[in-house]
Design brief:
Blueprint (H helix, E strand, L loop, with lengths): L2 E7 L4 E8 L3 H9 L1 H5 L9 E6 L6 E7 L5 E12 L3 E9 L12 E11 L2 E10 L2 H9 L2 H9 L2 H6 L1
Antiparallel strand pairs: 1-2, 2-8, 3-4, 4-5, 5-6, 6-7, 7-8
């Protein structure tokens, strides 16, 4: 299992996820840079993702939906900020109401930074998500963000091995 640590800090409003992969930085970066690869690992295993928009560029936008086993669609979006390929990118991560990526105003938005760091064994991916308030963070914790994130990231090894 690549996820080695998940640390929620409600008081500090951050969720930090650390995962280690036995692949070079460029290869792990490609998982996020290629929407067809990202679809295979974004979201919990039983909720496959479909990216309808994908631009991992400064100012770019990504819009996706995850489909539940019952066929329900759950929409989300990323608004990309800085990109330092293949080392780091940051983005606003929010819930959406539709396939156009219309933000869901009643649900929290976080600011996330993904950092790809070379290690002796491959790549360490560290994701730090910062929420607007402790209440917003608690809301996503109650929705299962820790379990969902772990399940999603733990799918990356199989993709890298393919």
């Amino acid at each position: 299992m690549p996820v080695t640590d998940i640390t929620p800090d409600v008081e500090g409003r951050t969720l930090t996820v650390v995962a280690d992969f036995a692949a070079p930085v460029d290869r792990v970066w490609q998982v996020y840079a290629d929407p067809r690869q990202l679809e295979q690992v974004w979201g919990p295993p039983d909720y496959p993702a479909t990216f309808v928009e994908h631009s991992l560029t400064p100012g770019g936008r990504m819009v996706y939906y995850m489909t539940s086993p019952e066929g329900e669609k759950y929409y989300g979006y990323w608004e990309v900020g800085d990109v330092e390929e293949p080392r780091r990118f940051d983005f606003a991560d929010g819930f959406a109401t539709d396939e156009a990526g219309t933000p869901a105003p009643e649900l929290p938005v976080s600011r996330a930074t993904m950092t790809f760091e070379a290690t002796e064994g491959g790549t360490r991916l560290t994701t730090v998500s910062t929420y607007e308030s402790a209440e917003a963070m608690q809301q996503v914790l109650d929705m299962g963000v820790v379990e969902g994130t772990a399940g999603a990231m733990n799918q990356i090894d199989a993709l890298l091995a393919a």
